[in-house]
Specification:
There is one protein chain. This protein is an alpha/beta fold. The protein folds into two domains: 203 residues, NAD(P)-binding Rossmann-like Domain (Rossmann fold); 37 residues, no CATH class. 47% of the residues lie in helices and 14% in strands. The chain is built from eight helices and seven strands, in the order βαβαβαβαβαβαααβ. It has a seven-stranded parallel β-sheet, sandwiched between helices. β1, α1 and β2 form a beta-alpha-beta unit. The radius of gyration is 18 Å and the shape is globular. It starts with 8 loop residues before the first strand and ends in an 8-residue tail after the last strand.
Length: 262
C-alpha cells in the first residue's frame, strides 16, 4: 500500500533511536524527506551518516538540541523551512517514563515530568504549525497506554501522559480542518527502558527473546510478545498519511492487546 509520502516532508523528534529511528527510516523508505532531532549529537550524527548513505544526503536533515528549549525548536523549524520549504507530518516522540510511586515523587519530579511530557509536544507544534497548516498536514503524538490505564509505580508519568492525550483531543478540534492531530498509545516496546532492564538482568544466561517472552507472559500481553519499534512506526506512518485522512482526535493502541479499558 502506497501511503503517499513521496515528495512530502516529515519532522520527527527523538529520532536517533528506538521508535523515533524506526519511524524516520520507514518514512524515508516510503519516499519522504525527513528532518529529525535528538539531544545526543554523537549518536545523531552516527545514525544520520547511515541514513544519508542509504537514502541520499538531500533527503536527510538533523539537528541536536532539547525540545524543551523553545528557541532551539524555533531555529530548527526555520532551518526546515529554508531547506525543504514545507512540513507535512510532525511526529512528537521525545520523552521517557519516570518510575516512582506517589510517595517517592518530589515536587520537582512532578514539575520536571509534566514539563517534559507537555512541552515536548507544545514547542514543536507551535514552531511547525504554520508549515503544517499550509500543507494541510498531520501531527502524531507518541503517547502511552498509561494515559488511560495508569500504573501505581509510574504515577507521575501516568498523570502527565493523560495530560498529553487531553491536549491531543483539544488540538484536534482547534486545528481542524487544516491539521489532523492523533496519537498512538504504546504498551511495552522492546527498546529504551526494557532494553536497559534486560541488560541489567540478574540471570545472564537468559536470552533476550526468552526474557521478553517471560515479561510478556507476566504482564498478560495477549499477543505474547513485547512490541517492536517497527510496530509503532507503522502505526505512526498510517496516522500521518492520507490513508487516515478522515481520522483526527483519535488514539491507536500499539500494545499487543494489553489494554483493559473500553
Amino acid at each position: 500500500m502506497d501511503l503517499g509520502y513521496a515528495g512530502k516532508v516529515a519532522v520527527v523528534t527523538g529520532g536517533s533511536s528506538g521508535i523515533g529511528l524506526a519511524t524516520v527510516r520507514l518514512l524515508l523508505e516510503e519516499g519522504a524527506s525527513v528532518a529529525f532531532c535528538a539531544r545526543n549529537a554523537s549518536r545523531l550524527n552516527d545514525v544520520a551518516a547511515v541514513l544519508r548513505r542509504d537514502f541520499g544526503d538531500e533527503r536527510v536533515m538533523t539537528a541536536a538540541f532539547s525540545v524543551l528549549d523553545a528557541g532551539a525548536v524555533a531555529e530548527f523549524a526555520a532551518a526546515v523551512t529554508a531547506r525543504f520549504g514545507r512540513c507535512d507530518l510532525l511526529v512528537n516522540n521525545a520523552g521517557q517514563g519516570r518510575v516512582s510511586t506517589f510517595a517517592e515523587t518530589s515536587d520537582a519530579d512532578w514539575r520536571d515530568e509534566f514539563e517534559l511530557k507537555l512541552f515536548s509536544q507544545i514547542h514543536p507544534i507551535r514552531a511547525f504549525l504554520p508549515l503544517l497548516r499550509e500543507a494541510r498536514g498531520a501531527i502524531v503524538a507518541v503517547n502511552s497506554l498509561l494515559a488511560y490505564q495508569p500504573e501505581p509505580h509510574m504515577v507521575c508519568t501516568s498523570a502527565a501522559r493523560a495530560g498529553v492525550q487531553n491536549l491531543v483531543k483539544s488540538l484536534s478540534v482547534e486545528l481542524a480542518p487544516q491539521v489532523r492531530v492523533n496519537a498512538i498509545l504504546l504498551g511495552l516496546v522492546g527498546s529504551g527502558q526494557w532494553s536497559r532492564r534486560f541488560a541489567e538482568r540478574e540471570d545472564r544466561s537468559v536470552s533476550r527473546e526468552q526474557w521478553y517472552a517471560d515479561l510478556a507472559a507476566k504482564k498478560g500481553i495477549p499477543l505474547g510478545r513485547l512490541g517492536d519499534p517497527a510496530d509503532a512506526a507503522g502505526a505512526i506512518a498510517y496516522l500521518g498519511s492520507q490513508a487516515a485522512g478522515y481520522v483526527t482526535g483519535a488514539q491507536l493502541e500499539v500494545s499487543g492487546g494489553l489494554s483493559r479499558h473500553i
